[in-house]
## 1
Amino acid sequence: MSKQILVISTSPRKGGNSDMLAEELIRGAREAGNDVEKVTLYDKTIGFCKGCLICQSTQRCVIHDDADTIAQKMLNADVLVFATPIYYYGMSGQMKTMLDRANPLYSADYRFRDIYLLTAAAEEDEHTPDGAVTGLQGWIDCFEKARLAGTVFAGGVTSVGEIQGHPALKQAYEMGKQM
């Protein structure tokens, strides 16, 4: 059965290494027969959450920018995939801001169950993405029907395109095929 998969690439660099991981996951997911939509944040206008909590009664954000539109796409996806570069051992600021702005989903009847995280970093240590995983898990913990279903980490990549030939690309592709 085909799934609606939303991939949110949060890198500020077009074609960055985490974005390449996203592309490989998308390739695998589409080959498996799924409907995949990719959203990139590098070209979007996303303001910070104001903490007003009006969204908890309206299921919409009072800030009418790209984050409001993306949150509505998240609401209707079966699967969410976040791709982020690791900055200072955490997720990108763009990803954190988008997670904050997805607050209207907390009280909504969201469809997503499985959430995946793709990360890339200059550092190679296997624990490099732990901060990003913990941050995303904190968000997921607020959605009782959702779970962190898998992660892929590409270490040792800095410059755009440096990920070419990295084994994490195959892992992302295979993860997509299994969705």
## 2
Amino acid sequence: MKLKESFFARDTVTVARDLLGRRLVRLLDGERLSGIICETEAYVGEADTACHASRGCTPRTRVMYGPPGHYYVYLIYGMYHMLNIVTAAEGEPEAVLLRALFPEEGVETMRANRRGAPLRQLVNGPGKICQALAIDRSLNGVSVESDRLWLEEGVAVSPQQVLTSPRVGIGYASTEDQRRHWRFHLPPDFTPG
């Protein structure tokens, strides 16, 4: 069953934690490509100096100010797409970045999209997810209820399995925001199913 937009209309840190174990599904040329979400990061609006919205509403961040349950896809370094999902309430520019998956369906297609990357390195980073699942800015602003990219219930994750740590690659943020434990991930030995 697909997750609804309403799933994302909640506290962003809670959503980031609750996304662990959910299945991300991309329908590409009639084939399902999927993986279990095993790492996320929360970005909580204009007051969070690590969040893109900390500089206010721009053409790039406009989708973050829109309704929850829509994708915020952006390009970094001119070459890597990053997949986020808008959370909280409309007008509150918050989102969750999907950082890593356990690959499930369509592994060979994902591997071809990643130029033969080994299974362990196939979708273990936000840019890798987008390469493997052919996610680009054409999905920016699209609802999570679309038939091109959606989320499903996935597998059960117990609270004891959820690990937290500071977010990655935010050296530009305030010391306080760099120290927040808003990165959620599953242990390396976690196996879905």
